[in-house]
Structure formats: C-alpha cells, structure tokens
Structure to design on (244 residues):
C-alpha cells in the first residue's frame, strides 16, 4: 500500500534537550497505526511536530508532499487533523456549535454536504444528538471525547491523529471510543493513534511502534507486538481497557 504519511529522521528539541530523536514511521492509506509508550516518551511531542505546531528537523511527507516548511493551518487544509489530549473544546458553546466549527473551512467553501456529516456524527455518537443544544463544558468526560472526535470528523480528514483518546475515561466508555475508532477504518480515514493503553491500542490497530525516551524501540504488526514478551512485560501486564 502507498504511504499517506511518511516520517524520516524526525528530531524535536526543547532548547538543548532533544525530546524526539530520529523517528521514522509510516501510515498507509486506510490503516490504523499506533504509537505506544510510557508517559514522557515523546508521543505528544511527535504529534505536535507532525501538525507543524513545533519546530522539527527531518522529513515529513504527506500524500507525496514535503511538509517541511508547511504551516499548521495549511496542513489542516490538506486533510490532517489532530484531536489533542485535552480535547480543547469550546466549553461555553453548544455541542452543535462545536461540531460546526469543525467544518469551518468547508463552510467558507459553501460545501453543501455538511448537514449530511452532522447526521453521520450523530449516528456514531447518539448521545451528542441528545445533547446537541447542551454546553460542551457541562458534558461528561466520555461525552467530551465523543465531541472532540465528532468535531474532527466534521473536517473530513484523510489522516486523523488521536492523542490519548482513552485518558481519564471509564473502561466502558473506553470500549465504546475504541469501537468507533476501529469502525472509522471502514470509511477510508487513516489514523495515527497515540496511546498509553497498549492493550486497547494494539487490538484496534494494524501496525504499531513502541516509543521510549524519544526513540523507536520496537515496531511491527500489532498482533506481533501484542505477543512480544518485551511488550507484554512492559505494557500489557498492567494495561486495562480491552475492547472485546
């Protein structure tokens, strides 16, 4: 398969401290790729650099286009979308208004298919439809994550990057969120999933990377990583939130 995203020798530094060192990874069309690793390994830094929110060295190629000097806003226009760890919702706005903002660029182009996308998001997350007039700041943690995902999907991304979507959520909600993530593969969206919950991440993904102290320590098919003794010992023994 062709690579939608290809990263080579990516380095990111905070001052003199290098947080990400010579990372290489690829995300193929229609695949889910996960990056697992402990807190502080550089996972969030990696995503921020890929979105152009942090300066970096190395090469990032998206849809055969070099993104080295491409600003974050332009990357969004090309179809990259990041759902950050903190979700970054507009708390004083309604669920519906948050979703509308996700399609802002399409509104400017007078896209007539936006209303259909509202219905698709509401089918994925019925609770959002029930609460479409409710302020985002009054939602539960799980509902806020659903809204963050829904808002991202309103932009019709080709590559969806998710930063710790299970963070702070109850196990049953984690299961629901990961079922939605797995289902998005069928829509053609490619996903780069960053997670500490290695068990759930490896269950829904096709390929995985293990990031430790800013470097790729292991990589391989997700099923292979899930049976690797090193991964089992370091990550799966304490992981929770199976999506079975």
């Amino acid at each position: 398969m062709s690579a939608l995203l290809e990263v080579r020798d990516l380095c990111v530094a905070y001052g003199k401290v290098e947080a990400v060192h010579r990372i290489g990874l690829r995300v193929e069309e229609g695949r889910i790729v996960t990056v697992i690793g402990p807190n502080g390994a550089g996972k969030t830094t990696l995503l921020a650099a890929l979105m152009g929110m942090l300066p970096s060295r190395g090469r990032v190629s998206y849809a055969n286009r070099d993104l080295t000097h491409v600003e974050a806003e332009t990357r969004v226009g090309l179809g990259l979308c990041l759902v950050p760890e903190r979700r970054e919702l507009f708390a004083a706005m309604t669920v519906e208004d948050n979703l509308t903002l996700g399609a802002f660029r399409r509104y400017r182009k007078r896209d007539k298919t936006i209303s259909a996308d509202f219905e698709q998001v509401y089918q994925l997350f019925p609770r959002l439809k029930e609460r479409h007039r409710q302020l985002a700041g009054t939602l539960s943690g799980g509902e806020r994550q659903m809204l963050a995902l829904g808002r991202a999907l309103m932009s019709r991304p080709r590559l969806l990057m998710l930063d710790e979507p299970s963070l702070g959520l109850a196990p049953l909600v984690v299961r629901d969120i990961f079922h939605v993530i797995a289902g998005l593969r069928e829509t053609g969206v490619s996903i780069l999933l960053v997670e500490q919950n290695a068990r759930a991440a490896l269950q829904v993904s096709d390929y995985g990377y293990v990031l430790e102290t800013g470097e790729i320590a292991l990589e391989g098919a997700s099923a292979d990583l899930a049976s690797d003794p090193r991964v089992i010992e370091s990550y799966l023994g304490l992981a929770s939130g199976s999506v079975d």
User: Anything to note?
Assistant: The CA atoms of residues 118 and 182 lie 20 Å apart.
